[in-house]
Structures are given as C-alpha cells and as structure tokens.
Automatic annotation (TrEMBL):
Keywords: Carboxypeptidase, Cell cycle, Cell division, Cell inner membrane, Cell membrane, Cell shape, Cell wall biogenesis/degradation, Hydrolase, Membrane, Peptidoglycan synthesis, Protease, Transmembrane, Transmembrane helix. The keyword Transmembrane applies. Residues 47-211 form the Penicillin-binding protein dimerisation domain. Its main location: membrane. NCBIfam families: pbp2_mrdA. It is a single-pass membrane protein. The lineage of its organism: Bacteria, Pseudomonadati, Bacteroidota, Flavobacteriia, Flavobacteriales. This is Cell division protein FtsI/penicillin-binding protein. One of its GO terms (molecular function) is peptidoglycan L,D-transpeptidase activity. The keyword Cell wall biogenesis/degradation applies. It comes from Nonlabens dokdonensis (strain DSM 17205 / KCTC 12402 / DSW-6). It is found in: Cell membrane; Membrane. Residues 248-579 form the Penicillin-binding protein transpeptidase domain. GO terms for biological process: cell division; cell wall organization; peptidoglycan biosynthetic process; proteolysis; regulation of cell shape.
Length: 648
C-alpha cells in the first residue's frame, strides 16, 4: 500500500512538472518572448503624411507641415524634476503633473502625448535638453496646413482620438490624430494612410541604443490618399466673402454630375485656428458660441421652411396629376380666401394669372388653388396628401440625401398620417393650405433645395450630391453618385415650369438682378420667421431665399441661397445667387456695383435684435465674452460688442 502511495505521488509530481513544461514551452512561450521583447525593445511609430486635398481644378487647399509631439513612457521616467521640466516645456507645473498622472493611468508601458503639435521653432530648443529626462522623447509627425482661410465646415479638422475611438479601431493609440468633422472625418481611412514603426534595443536605463535585428522588423509608413474634391476653390472663396456679416448657407451643384461646386455656411471660421497649441482654446470658444452657432453647418443641418421656391414643386405635381394646365388662369384678390376668411395674403399684381405669371409674380392665391386641387383630387384629404407627399419626396426632399458628408438632417414633408395624428377632427385641404407656399409644416435643408433645383434643371432626375471627385488622381467609381434618381414627374411637365422660372428673371421678382448674356431660371422666396419670446409668439424679420439654375438650356450650375433675417428673396439671396452664377460661368464679375452692395452690407443689426429682448441670450453672450458690458444702451452698441476674435 505504501509502495502504491509513493508511486502515485511520484507519478503525480511528474505529470505536474511535465504539464508545466508543456505550458511554458508550447503554450505561453510566445507570450513570454513577446513580453521579454517588449521589455528590451522600444517601438517608435513613424507617422505617414496625410493625404493632400485639392479642389476640382487641381488647386491645393490642404497640405501638411512637420510637427513634433513630446511623448512620455511613465514607467521609464523615475523621479521627474517637475519644476525644471515645466520650464523647458513652457507649461504650468500643475498642468504638467495632471498630464503625467493621466498618462500613467492610461498605461505605464505605452507612450502618451504630453505636449502635442510643436512647431519647428518650439521643438529646436527641446531637442538636446529633453535627453536629461528619462522616459521623455520627441515624436515627429505630419500636421495639417490649411492653404485657405475658409471652408472649415466642409473641410473639417483633425483632433486627438478619445478612448471610444481607440476601442473601436485598434489602428489608433493614445495621442493619435483623426478626422473629427467634414471631409477629414468622412474620408479618414483614405487620408490617414498606414503607420510605420522602427524598433530599437534598449539599455538598462530604457534608452534606445541600436536598431533591433538590423531593422528587419521595421515597417515603412504608407502615405495617405490624395483627394480631389468637387469644390471650386475660387468660387468657394468668393461665396464666403459674400456671406461675411450674414448668417445662412449657400450650396451650388453641377446638375449633370451632382458634384458640389460650393458649400458655404455662415458664420464660419479659419480652419487653421484648430491646429497648433491653441487649438483646444479655439475649439472651446467656437463650441461655446451659442449665439452664432459657427459649429453648425446650416447647409446640411439647418431645417427651414422653403418659402416660395417650393411653389414650383406644387406646379409640377399639379401638372402630373392633371388637375391644372399651364394656360389655365386663377384670380387673385390680394390673397386666398376660404369660408369668408383670408387664409393667405398676397401682394398687388395683375390678375388672373396663368402658370408662367403665377411663378414670375409668386402669387400665393394661384398656388393655394393648385395645392387644394391636388389634395382634393382623391376621395379623402389623407389620400390626396399621400399622393402629394410621394411626388414631393421624389425630388430628394424630406429625407437624408445620402451625400458623402458626415452630418445632415432629413427635413420634413408631411403625409396623410402626419395630419391625422395632429388633428382630432376631420381635416381638409384648406387646413394645410400653408404648404402651398412652402410654409406650414414643410421643412427642408438648403442642400435639398439645391438638389431639387438640379432635378428641375435636368427635367426630371438628379445625381446624389457629393464632394469627392478623384482619389490619387483617379476618378471615383461609385454607382451611388453616378446613378440617375428619377422624380415621379414626367419630363414634358417641366418646360412650362421652367419658362415661368425664366420669366422670374425677365419680368418677375428677380428682374433687377439679371446677368447679361446668361439665361437664368430662378425663384425668389420670403420665409416668414416666428419665434417664442417669454411664451409669446413673435414675428421676426423674414428670411431671404432664392433658387436658380443656368444657363436655361444647358445647365452648368444649380444653386440655393438662404439668408437668415434677410428681409425678402430679391434683397440678398437673389443678388448673391446671380453674382455666383456669373462668377462660375463667366469667370469674372461685371456688375461691380451689386458686388459692392453685398460686401458692404451687414445683417448683424438684425441678429442683435433677435436677442435684445431675450435676457437668457444676453447672459449667454456675456458668459461667452461676446458682450463686454452687461448693460447695453442701444441695439447698435449690442451689434458693436457682439464680436468674437476667433470668427470672421
């Protein structure tokens, strides 16, 4: 029995030792070797050059510049002389201590960024002095260099990745930069390239002494993809100038391709402000500006009532449904009356009108009667509304268009269910009559308006708007952007509507902004603007809106301009659109008086009026440093004080 027990013990011990040997040699030997390598080998990342961004004509908009990050590996630092190091890095001691604590929490073995994006001048004095501090070193990287002082909303910017990004994509490590908005975000994977790295053998102090295995395991970086965007740099710059001291958006599309020629949101800022050591301060100032909202892309995210430009859609739906004809005339007695009450007012003009004059004069009564016939053409109002909804949404309204930019809003085109859920009682066409003139419950984004205009210019189809034209010099091949999207309106119905839009310029509401030698089709709009102040509904200055395409028979540009509080369509929006059309087609501006008018006029007084009766807005402006004195004596002083140095 004792022999058997002794044999069992010896056998068991042998099995344990054998299992341990197998585990060490076969199972975790690679892990132990890797850990040993990590302890004796230092890996230094070699960041690739980020892809350049060119405009459609090959003009460089975004390039790169050399920058340097101060890095730290916490477990290699030992006792740090905080006072001496903070003086060298030109940073407060308390801030440096916080950064070191954060780096240690992140990882004691992996490197973290302490001071990012140093310039060549800032880096030079550190090059030798930093050797005195074990665990600290300089990492060279490529940083963005913006060759334009505009287009921040569409170009975007890059920023240090957060923990969420690192968890989602193992390509990134602490301290890496990635696109955070615009093209930089949308095409991050193409622009970033692939990181390389070099390995070095460490000495017992953790210092790199020689290349590991003669560089056999080093990997060279792969440069990012160069992008050619569809924007016209010169047209974009000109549009930005025209929008100074105004708020709103401009978007122009090439109808034949869906390429975005210009995309401007105002107010905007210089993209260079979001690079370098002051980028965090500048970003915070921009994000905290709840008065101007410069971080909101009004072209893609602003949902507005479209106003009178929407009338052309109702004309097309009416023709398609056969409820009107181009020559049929409707009377206008200074507005549309129903049940003995005036539902919609209208300005003075000749009456009765056929379709071409209805569009040219922007007659509310004409389009109210067209809209009512559409809704009442079916057995019930909800059925008629559904038919109307399906036609309207075929123009890309009321839904996210699917363009290649990272933000957007769908807008709203109501259907029968929408109104049935809104009203407890049975509703009829006159209940929703404001939709006839682009008010009511209809909401669109400026890019949807421009796309709608492109569909009209093409006589019934559009290509999805997009911002990328080429990658590394090769045209993109994406069916999403080369496939025609057809509306539900037959091609034959577009001509009478287009004739009416042409008459807008010839003898209608835009006759004073004609461009010599260019036949333009357009539609002005004045959008009623209401808000609630202290619980009371108050009307503010109307918005100015305009859509157009040109030339009439060979469209090269379709444009939408939306100016907040711009009074009426022809006062600002139509003027801006006509100058941009001339600039794009002729390459020069001949109406310098009109240009001077727009460049010299400011709407800041109107924007000050928006907040003058709202104490909470005044307080916000004071907190943000936009208003220097709490007690403003007049609106003009409010205008003068509403200045933020980071914005144009």
């Amino acid at each position: 029995m004792r022999k058997l027990l002794l044999f069992s013990i010896v056998t068991l011990v042998g099995i344990i030792f054998l299992g341990r040997m197998i585990y060490l040699q076969l199972i975790i030997s690679d892990e132990l070797a890797l850990e040993a390598e990590n302890n004796s080998v230092k890996t230094v990342y070699n960041y690739p050059e980020r892809g350049f961004i060119y405009d459609r004509n090959g003009k460089l908009m975004v390039a790169n510049q050399v920058a340097y990050d101060v890095m730290v590996i916490p477990r290699e630092t030992g006792d740090v002389n905080i006072t001496e190091l903070s003086k060298l890095l030109r940073i407060e001691e308390s801030r440096l201590e916080k950064k070191l604590i954060t780096a240690k929490k992140w990882s004691e073995k992996q490197a973290s960024v302490i001071i990012p994006q140093l310039t060549q001048e800032e880096y030079a004095p550190l090059q030798e002095q930093l050797r005195k501090f074990p665990g600290f070193y300089i990492q060279r990287r490529s940083l963005r260099k913006y060759l334009v002082d505009h287009s921040a909303s569409v170009l975007g910017y890059i920023r240090e990745v957060n923990q969420g990004t690192i968890k989602k994509d193992d390509y990134y490590v602490q301290g890496d930069l990635a696109g955070k908005s615009g093209i930089e975000l949308q095409y991050e994977k193409e622009l970033r390239g692939e990181k390389g790295y070099k390995k070095y053998t460490r000495d017992h102090y953790g210092r790199a002494i020689e290349s590991y295995k003669n560089g056999s395991s080093d990997v060279a970086p792969v440069a990012g993809t160069d992008l050619t965007v569809t924007l016209d740099k010169d047209l974009q710059e000109y549009a930005e100038r025209l929008m100074v001291n105004k708020r709103g958006g401009i978007v122009a599309i090439e109808p034949k391709t869906g390429e975005i020629l210009t995309l401007v949101t105002a107010p905007n800022y210089d993209p260079s402000l979001l690079m370098g050591r002051d980028r965090s301060k500048n970003i915070n100032a921009i994000l905290r500006d709840t008065i101007r909202l410069p971080d909101v892309n009004r072209v893609l995210q602003g949902q507005y009532a479209p106003g009178s430009p929407f009338k052309v859609i109702n004309a097309l739906v009416g023709l398609q449904e056969g409820v009107i004809s181009p020559k049929e005339r409707f009377s206008c007695n200074h507005g549309y009356n129903y049940g003995g009450k005036k539902k919609l007012g209208c300005h003075a003009h000749a009456s009765p009108l056929a379709m071409n004059r209805g569009i040219a004069e922007s007659c509310n009564s004409y389009f109210a009667q067209v809209y009512r016939r559409i809704i009442e053409s079916k057995k019930t109002a909800p059925e008629g509304m559904d038919v109307w909804h399906d036609h309207v949404t075929s123009f890309g309204l009321g839904d996210y268009l699917g363009y290649d930019l990272p933000v957007g809003q769908p807008g709203r085109i109501p259907d029968g269910d929408y109104y049935t859920s809104q009203y407890k009682y049975k509703w009829y066409a006159p209940t929703t009559i404001s939709n006839a003139i682009g008010q009511g419950e209809v909401a669109v984004t400026p890019i949807q308006l421009a796309n709608m205009t492109a569909a009209i210019a093409n006589r019934g189809f559009y290509y999805r708007p997009h911002i990328i034209k080429k990658m590394n010099g090769e045209p993109i091949s994406n069916e999403k952007y080369t496939e025609k999207n057809f509306t539900t309106i037959d091609a034959e119905h577009f001509e009478p509507v287009i004739e009416g839009m042409n008459e807008v310029y010839q003898s209608g509401t835009a006759k004073y902004v004609q461009v010599p030698g260019i036949e333009i089709c357009g539609k002005t709009g004045t959008v009623e603007n209401f808000t609630k102040i202290n619980g009371e509904r108050k009307q503010l200055t109307d918005h100015s809106v305009f859509i157009a395409f040109a030339p009439k028979d060979d469209p090269k540009i379709a444009i939408a301009v939306f100016i907040e509080n711009g009074y009426w369509g022809s006062r600002y929006a139509a003027k801006i659109a006509s100058l941009l059309i001339e600039k794009h087609i002729k390459g020069e501006i001949t109406r310098t008086d009109l240009e001077k008018y727009l460049l010299s006029h400011s709407l800041e007084y109107e924007y000050a009026k928006r907040i003058s009766n709202q104490p909470f807005k005044i307080n916000e402006a004071i907190d943000q440093g936009l208003i220097t004195e709490q007690k403003e004596k007049s609106l003009q002083s409010l205008v003068d004080s509403l200045q933020i140095k980071f914005l144009k």
